[in-house]
């Protein structure tokens, strides 16, 4: 099983999702069953580590994002991954535009797994530290929901 998290820049929300979900997989004993990655629909930050504020907020919850490196979403990702999960509706539109017709991937919003279908993880880039806390809280909830879904094998 392969899961890809997608946001705009791949320096705030989707690397946070990758780090949080990696820990959730470890805690659920599924780390060797599920491969994960993250990327951005945009190319501005390709090659960069996650935003310092995202790294700091995650580290306060015991999650190290420092070795992650931003990359851009590609058409091939829709053949390589089973789940391609966006953070907001703009991400989702860009993802659907790029998705090849023959892709079998589940393409949707990550927060659908938090029991809040259609809800978005808001972009924290231009806001304060509380925005990064909010992102972490939402992503933790969605991670638990996705773990339950993967466990149930649906
Ligand atoms: P992300 O946040 O999509 O969560 O990585 C952003 C990072 C950078 C920009 C926008 C959003 N930017 O415009 O540079």
Helix content: 25-40%
- Gross morphology is globular
Give the total of domains.
Answer: 1
Instruction: Output the number of helix runs.
Output: 5
* Ligand types: 4-nitrophenyl phosphate
Please give the CATH class: Alpha Beta
Order of helix and strand elements from N to C terminus: EHEHHEHEH
CA-to-CA gap between the ends?
12 Å
Query: Looking at CATH, which topology would you report?
Result: Rossmann fold
Spatial sequence of strands, sheet with the most strands: 2-1-3-4
**Mean pLDDT level:** 97
Largest sheet: 4 strands, parallel
Q: Which homologous superfamily in CATH is the superfamily?
A: Response regulator
- Our Rg estimate from Cα atoms comes to 14 Å
Low-confidence stretches: none
Structural overview:
Its EC number is 3.1.3.48. Belongs to the low molecular weight phosphotyrosine protein phosphatase family. Keywords: Hydrolase, Protein phosphatase. The chain has 154 residues and is an alpha/beta fold. It has a single domain (2-152), classed as Rossmann fold (3-Layer(aba) Sandwich). It is 40% helix and 13% strand. The protein has helices at 13-27, 52-59, 77-80, 89-98, 129-152; strands spanning 2-7, 35-40, 83-86, 106-109. The protein has a 4-stranded parallel sheet with strand order 2-1-3-4. α4 links the parallel β3 (83-86) and β4. α1 (13-27) packs across α5 (129-152) and α2 packs across α5. The longest helix has 24 residues, at 129-152. The model has no long low-confidence stretch (mean pLDDT 97). Bound molecules: 4-nitrophenyl phosphate (4NP). 4-nitrophenyl phosphate (4NP) binds next to loops.
């Amino acid at each position: 099983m392969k899961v890809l998290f997608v946001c705009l820049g791949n320096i705030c929300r989707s690397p946070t999702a990758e780090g949080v979900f990696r820990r959730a997989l470890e805690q659920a004993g599924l780390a060797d069953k599920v491969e994960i990655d993250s990327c951005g629909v945009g190319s501005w930050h390709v090659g960069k580590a996650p935003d310092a504020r995202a790294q700091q907020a995650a580290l306060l919850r015991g999650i190290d994002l420092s070795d992650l490196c931003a990359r851009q979403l590609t058409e091939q990702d829709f053949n390589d991954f089973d789940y391609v999960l966006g953070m907001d509706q703009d991400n989702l539109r860009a993802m659907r535009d790029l998705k090849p017709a023959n892709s079998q991937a589940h393409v949707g919003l990550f927060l659908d797994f938090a029991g809040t279908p259609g809800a978005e993880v808001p972009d924290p880039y231009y806001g304060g530290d509380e925005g990064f806390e909010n992102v972490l809280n939402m992503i933790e909830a969605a991670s638990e929901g996705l773990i339950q879904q993967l466990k149930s094998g649906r």
